[in-house]
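Our collaborator T.R. sent over the components below with a one-line note: 'Predict the complex.' Nothing else. No constraints on interfaces, no templates requested, no preferences about which chain binds where. So this is a plain run: every listed entity goes in together, and whatever single assembly comes back becomes the starting point for the next discussion.
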Amino acid sequence: DVKVTQSSRYLVKRTGEKVFLECVQDMDHENMFWYRQDPGLGLRLIYFSYDVKMKEKGDIPEGYSVSREKKERFSLILESASTNQTSMYLCASSFYRLWGAQGTDTQYFGPGTRLTVL
Amino acid sequence: AQSVAQPEDQVNVAEGNPLTVKCTYSVSGNPYLFWYVQYPNRGLQFLLKYITGDNLVKGSYGFEAEFNKSQTSFHLKKPSALVSDSALYFCAVRDEDTGRRALTFGSGTRLQVQP
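Returned assembly:
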């Protein structure tokens, strides 16, 4: 089974703090993603990475950065946390393309980190 | 641009009755379509997907979904609902022709199954 783990289930930080959210996957997936989930808005893509040291902005990258130094690990960084970044953060990973296999494109999610910024 | 609409915030159904959770999509090319389920305080779990082939897709826990190209819909269905199906359901799409690897998710539909 694919396993995606996130470093914390719950996190409380203060405004202006630098926050690191860590995600690790154990299936050698090329793609990794960071989403935030807010009620009524569904999941919105923050950043994704398709290879080590490669990253692309998603739909709402402002106020965030990412790091992917190793294939299995993808970090989300809030440079200076603000109250409007209080949210549930979900990490996911997937193969890029695996022709003829059930794994094609399916994203596997971690349990989420509920971040509260005070 | 790719987008997904889930028109119902909540769907209520009695246990044993059939259920439908609606999803419509918009893409410029060929769609890859997904359904995920989220139980309280958990991450998303994959239910099923449509890539190509048969329009009726069967997935986990007895769920199925029907791809309708003319109506640009991908509704999730189950013949007989269980109380344990109560959860938040998300539809997602990826436009194969754009090369964008990320999914676009709908806003979610909360399914409440009453005993």
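Summary for T.R.: The two ends of chain B are 41 Å apart (CA to CA).
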